[in-house]
Design brief:
The chain is an all-alpha fold. The chain contains 3 helices and no strands. The protein has a domain at 55-91. The N and C termini lie far apart (81 Å).
Length: 91
């Protein structure tokens, strides 16, 4: 009789997959498009709107800029209130 345990194929497959994943993750990522900017510039006026949306009418551009400013102001108020309620104790 054979006293050895049966070969666990699923365990071997899992081990091979983990080894392959470790190998792939340890390899350096090739740099593609090195000239691309990774982060967007900060601030409303940092990106020239003519270059990004050439087909917009002047009134659409003004409305878009106003909407962005209002949204940013609303988010600032929201986070200020949240920060005050979470971290500042009222006496």
């Amino acid at each position: 009789m054979n006293n050895q345990p049966p070969l666990n194929w699923m365990g071997l497959l899992l081990l091979a997959a983990l080894l392959r994943m470790g190998y792939e993750l340890s390899q350096p990522v090739p740099a593609r498009n090195e000239g691309m900017v990774r982060l967007l510039p900060t601030g409303i006026g940092a990106v020239h709107s003519e270059a990004s949306w050439p087909g917009l009418q002047p009134w659409q551009r003004k409305a878009s800029e106003k909407a962005v400013e209002n949204y940013a102001a609303a988010q600032e108020r929201k986070w200020r209130r949240w920060n005050e309620s979470m971290f500042e104790r009222s006496s």
